[in-house]
Amino acid sequence: MYSERYVRTFGSAAGVIGQLYSLPALERDGYGAISRLPVSLRILLESLLRHADSTPACEAQLRQLASWQPQALRDSDIPFMPARVLLQDFTGVPLLCDLAAMRDAVHALGGDAGWLAPQVPVHLVVDHSVQVDFFREANALALNMAQEYTRNAERYRFIKWGVQAFDKLQVSPPGLGIVHQVNLEHLAPGLGRRGEVCFPDSVVGTDSHTTMINALGVLGWGVGGIEAEAAILGLPVTLLIPDVVGVQLEQQLPHGVSATDLALALTAILREENVLDCFVEFFGAGCASLTVPDRATLANMAPEYGATVAFFPPDEQSVAYLAATGRDEATQLAFRHYYQAQNMFGTPLPGMLHYSRTVRIDLSRIQPCVAGPRLPQEHKPLGIVKQDFLLSLGQPVSQGGFGQITAPRLPLAANPAALRHGDILIAAITSCTNTANPGSMLAAGLLARNAVLRGLRVAPHIKTSLAPGSRVVSDYLARADLLAPLGILGFRVVAYGCTTCIGNAGPLDPALEAQVSQQGLVCVAVLSGNRNFEARIHPALRANYLMSPALVVAYALAGRIDIDLAHEPLGHDATGAPVYLHELWPSPLDTGLALQQASHSQPYRQAYLPLQQPQWAALPVLSGQRYPWPASSYIVRPPFVAQLALACPAIAGLYQARALALLGDAISTDHISPAGPIAADSCAGRYLYEQGIAEADFNSYGSRRGNHQVMMRGCLANPRLRNLMLPPDNEPQGGITLHQPDAQRGFIYDIAMRYRTEQVPLVVFAGHNYGTGSSRDWAAKGMALLGVRAVIARSFERIHRSNLVGMGVLPLEFQGQDSVATLQLHGRELFDLPFIEDGIRPGMLLTLQIYYPNGQQRSCTLRVRIDTEAEATYYRHGGLMPYLVRTLISKASLAPQQVPA
Description:
Elements: E1 7-12, E2 15-21, H1 23-28, H2 39-50, H3 58-66, E3 77-80, E4 84-88, H4 89-108, E5 122-125, H5 140-165, E6 169-172, H6 179-187, E7 191-194, E8 197-200, E9 202-205, E10 219-222, H7 225-232, E11 237-240, E12 244-250, H8 259-273, E13 279-283, H9 292-300, H10 302-305, E14 309-311, H11 316-324, H12 329-341, E15 357-362, E16 369-371, E17 379-381, H13 385-394, E18 424-429, H14 432-435, H15 438-453, E19 463-466, H16 471-479, H17 483-488, H18 510-519, E20 524-527, E21 543-546, H19 549-558, E22 571-572, E23 578-579, H20 581-584, H21 588-598, H22 602-607, H23 614-618, E24 654-662, H24 669-672, H25 683-690, H26 708-714, E25 736-739, E26 744-747, H27 748-757, E27 762-765, H28 778-786, E28 788-793, H29 798-806, E29 810-814, E30 830-833, E31 845-851, E32 857-864, H30 869-876, H31 880-894
Parallel strand pairs: 4-5, 4-9, 5-6, 9-10, 12-13, 12-15, 13-14, 18-19, 18-20, 20-21, 24-27, 27-28, 28-29
Antiparallel strand pairs: 1-2, 3-11, 7-8, 16-17, 22-23, 24-30, 25-26, 29-32, 30-31, 31-32
Helix pairs in contact: 2-3, 4-7, 4-31, 8-9, 11-12, 15-19, 15-21, 25-26, 26-28, 28-29, 30-31
């Protein structure tokens, strides 16, 4: 066997620990300067070596990756076999629907449904379904969880069926924590192990912030649910050999500057550096000053700056974190000695490794900041937030502003409680980005304590919430006597899960929301999250700012975003004296003492003991390999492999196509497939009403992802989406388009179904960074179900591009200066793409023929953004799911004994 020659033992002074596939031995055999490779690439290389005997063209791929050159052309792909797959419920439920439907397809084609089964460990953490309905009540946590079970019982029963149907699927029920924090604190094993063989832990997850685990030295990244299905069923994840951008960290963060401040600054810097589709790897002396929770804050934000991973090589901080979170001594010992034996232990210093390019960041120059009002990369040092917000109020919508007539902020004698532009209505400490960081969470608690001692309070109309990423957080806050002052300010524990950051902020007071709507007010949410895309946090709030947990508390006390926190008071104490932020900010001594109180491993062990949840245990379990699909408005059999033929279909050309929508830059997956509440006047709301479902039970798009009828009607239905086919208005009109050539206006779903009846193929046009944000496979599935054959954009975000290919939708990139604007597209044109049927190859060029309504014609060149041969194969099959079913049946017909049972 080829790879077996590189197996070596490793151990400590106490004896042998296990075996490994030796990269130093590979280097000694002349495969290249492996010890000079970025550490993240060496983990890919180890996986290639370990699976060499089962991977075609293994030696050529090994040599190619081992001899990686920093500035080489990236046109070769490699397979990667992750050790495990991580799911959250918003993506996990539709993934289970797909697996169940694929089992039905296998059965219909004469196979055994049980053949379709996970080949690697899969863990699903139920964390995305809880909503902040109750927040200032003393028992808000219990009330929200009860409401969660009421809304999601059908989905949770389906998940429990999945656990009994798929042997390698494990589930963490609601109330344990946020998937990425649970992964970091508990699920990550340090090293993978099969028998005596040890190997680096690695993971792909159906949430783009899977990169948070990179902080521990674990290679992992987010994929769409479609690509995750392939990994679950034993197919490698294929990727182009990447550029690796080295981020050199120098000096240390000043006191009072948080890891969140660094993460937001880094997001702006790396967006400007264009690290899209790159690996980012941190190195330099400054890394040593960052704890694993600090690193996790930076790694979590990798999707926001566009990187595939944000990797910290394993070092002493990694071992210290394993100890601090209750991993046993054997795990710590094996971790250290494995990476030492592979020459991968310790933070690299400048000059040690090769990188495609280097970005230097002086930590000592980072300042407190926020990001907003619409994008995570809109970095604003704290001193300019007020000025920037007031300026944006008066700027036209077309220039990124709010198009408002500004007025001085003056008290209104008749109604001093009346809302004004800039008033904060939501203040949420939420999101694994920050709740996994004890330093950040304790700083928020200390600031709250100091504010309470000065007599300050948060205005009651502000919806405040604290959603820790695990039960450990509330434990150490309580031991430091900080839960009580947070609760006094309104920041009570409302849930252990994703809430405001993913659009589960819950409803606002109807009177407040009516006031915002009637007066066209630009009101604000402040949150310690990672995303602030339009309408993501709450449809009524047009300005959303990301910041550290401590700053969330500070802005909540101020009640408005248009305040200069350096010079204006947050409020006044009982004597009428002004209280400034610098007076409340925790001292280094207080912070250090609080961290000492939080530094105990026992709470981590206790927090992840099996929870006795009567609600979960009480849910009935359906049995059997195949799901019976009982009548449900939540779980409906998806149509993607229904009536599947064994033969791979021919690819048809695209002739006389119409544009379903013309979109601009930075269109996020939230724009394409929203996750928030379903509006009564939306296409999806109309459908649910027609099914006899009351508006109070509509729930959210996220919770309805197991029902394709809802999701295809929700495609492109974000209320803040601007479809450039419509007349330019101040306000966007999400979910609406024009039918051509009669220019009739209607819901996008209705127009798409009309085109289907007319047998008109559809395309969508967009600008730069199409598909940024969450790894939301419904943003691609919805397009496919609407009949969209191709998306033509200036550039694509990685995960969404992959999802489109996985659904048989062709991603195409404009070349040169071509764009919707330069080609003068208005949505009335016809389009031909005649050469698709000649065969699709990665990176090939195609010619789009454009026919304008005035009789003129024009053509432009498009690059096919299918990046690997594996993706080309999936596309030829009409998508990844048809490919998986056909492949399984084909293998069974050739060698039934080799098909997994």
